[in-house]
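Researcher: I'm preparing a figure for a lab meeting and need a structural model of a single chain. I don't have an experimental structure, so a prediction will have to do for now. The sequence is pasted below. Please return the structure as tokens so I can convert it later.
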Amino acid sequence: MSMRTISKAALHAALICLVVGCGGYVEHLKTAGPVSRELTVEVRNYNFYDATIYAWDSGERLRLGMAQGKSTSSFTFRWDLEDVRFIIDFIGAGELAGEMLPVEPGDELILIVGQEDHRKTSLTKRSQ
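Model: Understood. Here is the structure written out token by token.
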């Protein structure tokens, strides 16, 4: 089994963990063409709440933008690290973090924010 096959298997395992762990779902899409250091994430927000979306790894937190409730948004960003975790910060309803996800330059991801994700017990509230 090649390293490429192992990394794809690890990616699929991480996706399953994200579904179970955060209620959101990230799908890895194959892309053809030149490799860049940019990632693209399409956020499908089925939740009523607007949410700020962040990419995070090892203390580096990058604000991607606002995903309005009941809408789809797309963000392209430069990411030089091997793993990324998406944080969904619901306006007025806490924060939800997914599992770490291995990524490669040029990856395109889909992050699905479920209708009830703002009610998850793993939400953290920011202290005022």
